[in-house]
Structures are given as C-alpha cells and as structure tokens.
Amino acid sequence: MDAAPKRGPGPALSRPMTLDPRVTNDPWKAVAARLLSGFQTRMTVMGMKLIAGIVLLTAASGAMAHDALLAQALARTAMPASELHGTLKTVTTVRGGDKPEIETETQDLARSPDKALASYAELKEVIGPDARVLSREAGRTVYTFTTRRVPRGYTGGGRVNVNTNNKNEDDDIKFEGRAEVSMDAKGAPYVSHLDLHMPQAQGNLLARIKKIDLSYAFAPWPTSDAMVATAVTADVDVRALFFVHRDVRAESVLVTDASTK
Length: 261
Description:
2 domains, 10-stranded antiparallel β-sheet, about 35% strand, about 260 residues, alpha+beta
C-alpha cells in the first residue's frame, strides 16, 4: 500500500471560520451576537407598540375633543318662549285626496307663546350621550345618534302633532338622528340643524304610519346669545283603512320683529 501523503504545515487550521463575518469560532462572541440581535428585536417591537399607543391615544383624544364640542354646543342657553317676539308662519300641504290642500297659518308669538317652536333646551335629552361623529370639516361637525324623543313644541299647525314623550318607552318610536354643530360669529359652537328619521313603519293594517321625517334649524337670537328654533319641517305619511292615504308636509318659519334685529 502506498503511504498516505504527509500534509505539510499550513495556515488553514489556525485561521478562524469565515462563513459569515458575524460568526466566529469564539463561542462568547457568538452568544453576544445572539443576545444583541434579540435585544434589538425586542427594542423594535417595543418601539412599534409605543408608536401604536401614541396613535391610539391621539385618536382617543380626537374623539374626546368632539364630545367636548357637542357638550359645549348643547350647553348654550335657550331663549324662553315668553321672551320671543315675532311671527310664526306655517304652510301645510296635504296630499292624498282629489287635489292637494294647502293651509297657511300665522301666529303672533307675543300673544301666543305656547305656539313657539321647539326649545333648544330639549336637544340635550333628544341627542343623548351616545352621539358619534359622522363627518368633520372647517366650522362644521355632524353627529349621528338614535333616540326615542323628539323636541316638544309647535309643529305643523293642527295637522301635524308628533309627541313621543310617553311614560312607557316601549311604546315610543325609535328615530335615527343627525345633529350638525356650527360656529357662530364669536366662534362658539351650537347645534344649527337637527334631523330625525323614522326608519321603520309603525302601526297595523288598519292604521299605519309610513313615514315621519322631522327637521329643525336653530340660531342665536339676533340681540343675544340665547338659542331659538328658527324653522321646523315635518313630513308625515299615514295610511288608514286600506284606502285612506294622507301625505302631510308642514313648514314653519320664525320671522323676527324688526325691533329685534
């Protein structure tokens, strides 16, 4: 047998392994590298959590700011009906007969304060504590909510009278609502518009309410910061006894006296 060739001395066995510049044949250096890598990973995760927490905190702060805006708007003082001076004009249109019936009524609020439109003081109870922001732009924020209350007040002359403030809440109609908060000339927020929509028909085959849509407009009184309802529109669609159908639309507008401008 031929003898195995002798290997001469060479530098190969005396050199460190160089498969990866970060890996050496020194076990302590390898452990240190792994520890450093794990520490950096944990730091990265902690950093991501911190950033996520800041984002959530910012979003929550924004929601709280919107709630504060609505609360500030609802805290505005309402003008007492006894102090209103002006004329309330109501035009009611009834469809469903041979031809539309149109009625026009005029009320002097100084003589008939009970004919005043809904009080601004009602809005806090109507909107409730669970309103959510729907949209926001410069000087205007829109909220959505659900409610079983409508503002008490004059609507639609003698043809339309919507009152859901019953003692038994199970008998009340549920409305989907929208409230718009605007800014007055002084930069103070107030609820400028309130819309209520009945999403489901109510009643039975003999008498059924197909639609109730209510819309309110509010503004500061010309000579003070007190809030008043300046317009109310009510749309009601009623069916009865299978063949009776009435669609009633009542529009009421407050016209202030020249002395209050």
